[in-house]
Structures are given as structure tokens and as C-alpha cells.
Amino acid sequence: MKLSTRRVAQLAVMVALLVIGAYVSIPLRPVPITFQSAFVVLTPLLFGTSAYIAVLAYLLLGLVGLPVFAEGASGLVALSGPTGGFLAGFLLASIVVGIIVEHWHWDSRWRDLVLAEGSLIFIYVPGIFWMWHVLLLRGGAAQAALVGLIPILALDVVKMAVVAALARPLRSALAEVEDG
User: Fold this and answer.
1) Euclidean distance between CA atoms 24 and 96, whole angstroms
2) Secondary structure element (H or E) that encloses residue 25, with its range
3) From residue 88, how far is each of 4, 5, 59, 129, 168 by CA, in Å?
4) Which domains does the chain have, with CATH numbers?
5) pLDDT tens-digit series, residues 83-94
6) pTM of the predicted protein model
7) CA within 20 to 30 Å of 92's CA: 41, 51, 128, 165, which one?
8) What are the residues whose beta carbons fall under 8 Å from the beta carbon of 2, sequence distance 6 or more?
9) Which helix (H) or strand (E) covers residue 92, if one does?
């Protein structure tokens, strides 16, 4: 995959938005509510299969110690902590949604809504199972879902609806920039 300078710059902007989204948070335990997931899902809706590059760059920035994760966390501690599975889910969602976007050529707000809401599965499943593993919760994955998912689910559904509504006009604006 060859990326133009423009596309690299656009993906860098998405990395910056991921960092900003991590800092806009409501500090719940063990999973804070952030806007990271919105930008994680918006990225493949806008950039298709190249979206994973932005998410991977974001994760690598955190891995090397920059405080880019929620609440300023970074490093292996953040990746191996209770929310590490959600961070891995970000990468999974960006890859899967990016592939689907490139192969599902029916461009509509309904497609964007289905993909945005469906992306939560790719974020939540690794997040819940990792949290269960790390916190050694009694009651298994069901208990992890109760602890980590229920407090953030309603707001994430709303965030994904907003992302889906924004995706199409943003794609049009990006297409105009590339044409002009």
C-alpha cells in the first residue's frame, strides 16, 4: 500500500484526534468513558484499509511511554492493565471496519451506522475478555461485561450514531480536497 503525503498527513491528524479523545474522559473505574472509540471508528469510515496505520501509530506512541491513553496512561502498564483489551480492540475494529468499507461499496448513512455500531463488538469483545483475565473476576466474562461494559454502552451507542452521521459529509469534504 503506497500512501500519498496528503494521506499520511490526514492519518496523522487522526492520531492527534485519538490522543485528544483519550483526554476527553469521564473517569469511571475500571473503564473510563472517552472519545477514543469515536475517532477509532471514524478513521476507517473515512480512510478504509489504511486506517489501521493511524490506530497502530497511536498504540505505539503509548507503548513507548508517551501519555496518550485515557487519563494520561502509557507503556506496558496501560496495555497490560484492565483496559488493554479495549486498546487492542481499537486496532481490530480499525482493520475489520476498514476492510468492510473498501468492499461494501454501498455508500449511505445506513451503511455507516451499521458499521459504526457493529464496530463496538470488535472493541468490546477483546476488552471484556482481557478485563476478565486481568482482574480475575468471579463470574467470568459475564461479570467483566457487567463491570466494564454496562457503564459505557449507552454512551458508546450514541457516539457511534454521531460518528455515522459525520462520516459521509467528512468523506465528501475529503474528496473535494483531493479533487481540488
Assistant:
1) 25
2) strand 25-26
3) 27, 27, 9, 11, 26
4) 5-170 (1.10.1760.20)
5) 899 999 999 999
6) 0.90
7) 165
8) none
9) helix 84-103
Phi, psi (rounded to 5 degrees) for 36: -55, -45
DSSP secondary structure string for all residues of 38-64: HHHHHHHHHHGGGHHHHHHHHHHHHHT
Q: Are 47 and 14 in contact (CB under 8 A)?
A: yes
Distance CA 32, CA 71 (A): 8
CB 131 within 8 A of CB 148: yes
**Residue 170 Cα distances to 6, 41, 42, 43, 131, angstroms:** 15, 13, 10, 11, 34
Q: Which residues contact 104 (CB under 8 A, 6 or more apart)?
A: 111, 115
Task: Give tens-digit pLDDT for 105-133.
Answer: 777 889 999 999 999 999 999 998 888 88
C-alpha cell at 26: 469521564
Phi, psi of 26 (to 5 degrees): -110, 115
The answer to whether residues 109 and 117 touch, using CB atoms and an 8 Å cutoff, is no
CB 131 within 8 A of CB 81: no
Q: Taking each helix axis from N to C terminus, what angle separates 150-179 and 109-135, rounded to the nearest 10 degrees?
A: 140
